[in-house]
Amino acid sequence: MRSTKPIHEMTYIFLLLPAIVIVFYWYSSQNTDRTEERNRFYASDCARQKTLQIDGELNSAMNLIKTYAHFIGDSLTEPKVTARMLKELDDNSLFDALMFTDADGTDYASDGRTSDVTSRRFYTEGIRGRSNTDIVYDPHFFDEAMVCFYTPVYFGGEIIGVLRGAYLAEEYLRNMLATTYFGESADVFLCAPDGTAVASSDDKQYEGNLLHVLSQNGIIDEETAKRAQDIFTNGGEGSFLCAPGSRTDNICAMHLPENDFVLVQTFPETITKRMVADENLAGIRLEAILIGLFAIYVVALLIRASQNKKLLEEENREMGYIINGIITLFSRFALVDFETDTYQYLSGTRPQDEEIACSGSYRELTEYLCSIITDEDGREECARFMDKTSVQDSLEYQDDLRIECHVSRRGQMEWEHMNIICLERKYGKASKVLMIRQNITEVKEQQLRIQAQMSRANRKERQYRIAITSNAFCTFEFNLTQDRIDHDITCTADGKQVSLLDQAGLFAPCSASEYFEKWKQFVLPESMEDYCSTVNTAYLKQQFAQGNAQVDAEYWGMAFPDEQMCIRQSFIMTKDNDSDDILVMVVSKEITEQVQKQREQTQALQDALMQAQHANRAKTTFLSNMSHDIRTPMNAIIGFATIAVNHIDSREQVRDCLQKVLSSSNHLLSLINDILDMSRIESGKVQIKEQECNISDLMHNLVNIIQPQVKAKQLELFIDTFEVTNEDIIADSLKLNQ
């Protein structure tokens, strides 16, 4: 079919070419008529505008002469217009001449000339109180026709004369009548109601009825002159096309709305001819371009026909490859005709099992395909799927149907994919369909494996989520990249669901940054610095960029009224594979009890440390003091031993020294026992040994112990005891000596 298409197209072109030429000639004739008619309307509009313009000019002049008359009437002190007054008014007037006619019919010019105008129309009507326009062809004071505008002059409520302003008719009216069309002058005439030409734009004199003159000169035809004459007779306006051979294309005749004149305007024939010629020339050019394009198109068709032939051969070759590939992928095709309720396997394909014939009734094909399905539910679903009515109803709004079946063939379990494609419809119902079956066992098994893997992954994800969110009082997610919270944030308090967004004065969706900022009102001042430095989107993005997928924040807050709690918020960040956005799951847990226990343990450790430090300082102080105390009896022992050696021959003195050495030794022994008691001090097991002792003896022993040190410094020590009520006491003599 494609190889004959260019030939058909060329045939159509050769048939259309002469038709285009004929249409062009028809277009040219229609174009002439259309142009003439369009120019007639255009000329009518222009004539109407010119009529309104001239009518407006005449009205303006009439209003001006009435103003002058009113001014003169108001300025008079007596019913007489003087030559001086008329002269002053004429010098400042816009008219070419200003004249006054008194009640007796004497006409006065501004230069003092007078004449009798009792027979003139402007006098007879003006003295009766009328204002109008008059054409005076034989004025007394001028040599050419004048256009006069007259109005009565009143004094004391009575008419005393007629004031008249006049223009030179030819110059004044010629300038108003001048009109051009597309750069060419048109003839415009101002006529009296009887058809006499008052003035013309071509500055020519026309005697008698203007339309008769134009008809006799061949400017318009007689028929057009008659139709235009009706305008003069009946009033109104009209535009008329002239017969071929006339020297003008159309003529317009219109009455001035407020003045007793008729405007006649002709449209130059040369303009119409030029416009028709220009439009025909454009048509000729268009026709030449179309013929050229047709020629180019014919050549292009020939070239394309050659190319299409090669392309068709290539497409046929490629189509053969595609068909072979489809047969490899879909090895079984069955054409089903619902009108005859039959099926037929296409040429080159046949059923995989010999149990089913290559052709037969559609019911037999349906029963066979349902019989090889393994489970009962699958057989029922396949029967509903292949039901004729169901297939036709489903294919009303779509072109194909699909189903997957688990079948058993020769003892092996397989998966098949079945397509029903609509090939033809009658009355909106599928009448012929193509049934395709494809073995998808490998693909289906791989899909099932993937589903199992995804199921395990989902189960692990749920387990991880449960592990992460356990003991959490609030969990929500937000998009860190887009800074957006899409869903409400809720938690359970006193058995009720509480909206945290509502507490912050927000509602979803909202900005995460705004939510974090609003939540500061619930953070205690002592934790504000830690909260602000951690809970913000910029810090979270920075941590994620550094490879930290989890950020923890701990702070004290007032999550609920009158209830302080310590909150640990964990921000767990992951990147979405589809959008590359950073998604954050926020898990909030209350750790008030743990923090309080930690604080108590810390306080206990600090207290123990302080006690140990205090004991250590006490031990240091004790040892320092004890070293001094030990040195004192040692010095006494050494001193008295030295004295005894030096007086070895004096028995009494040696005995006395030995007694003092013995006393100092006992004191030294008690000090050493105190040092040994340090372990008892540290363990809190210090014991007080209560025994009988004498205060005087204790004092005497102490003096003996320190006496050598006193003498070594060449000092003297005396101790007297007096007024001691009880010298014998029960005490720990060692502790007392210390």
Question: What features would you describe in this structure?
Answer:
The chain is α+β, with helices and mostly antiparallel strands and 738 residues long. Helix content is 51%, strand content 24%. The strands form seven sheets. A six-stranded antiparallel beta sheet has the order 3-2-1-6-5-4. A six-stranded antiparallel beta sheet has the order 16-15-14-19-18-17, with helices on both faces. A five-stranded antiparallel beta sheet has the order 10-9-13-12-11, sandwiched between helices. Strand 24 and strand 25 (582-590) form a beta hairpin. Helix 16 packs antiparallel against helix 17 and helix 17 (651-676) crosses helix 19.
Core attributes:
24% strand; 20 helices; single chain; six-stranded antiparallel sheet; 51% helix; 738 residues; alpha+beta
What's the rounded overall pLDDT mean? 81
Total number of strands: 27
Unreliable segments of 5+ consecutive residues = none
* Largest beta-sheet details: 6 strands, antiparallel
Range of helix content: 40-55%
Count of DSSP H/I helices: 20
Task: Please sum up the structure shown.
This protein is of the alpha+beta class. A hairpin with a 5-residue loop joins strand 9 (188-191) and strand 10.
What is the fold's blueprint, element by element?
Elements: H1 5-75, H2 83-91, E1 97-102, E2 106-108, E3 114-116, H3 121-126, E4 132-136, E5 146-155, E6 158-168, H4 169-177, E7 179-181, E8 184-186, E9 188-191, E10 197-200, H5 210-216, H6 222-234, E11 237-241, E12 248-255, E13 262-268, H7 269-329, E14 332-337, E15 342-345, E16 359-361, H8 362-371, H9 376-386, H10 388-394, E17 400-409, E18 412-426, E19 429-439, H11 441-469, E20 472-479, E21 490-493, E22 496-499, H12 500-503, H13 512-518, H14 525-534, H15 537-545, E23 550-560, E24 563-575, E25 582-590, H16 592-646, H17 651-676, H18 678-683, E26 691-694, H19 695-712, E27 728-731, H20 733-737
Antiparallel strand pairs: 1-2, 1-6, 2-3, 4-5, 5-6, 7-8, 9-10, 9-13, 11-12, 12-13, 14-15, 14-19, 15-16, 17-18, 18-19, 20-25, 21-22, 23-24, 24-25, 26-27
Helix pairs in contact: 1-7, 5-6, 8-9, 16-17, 16-19, 17-19
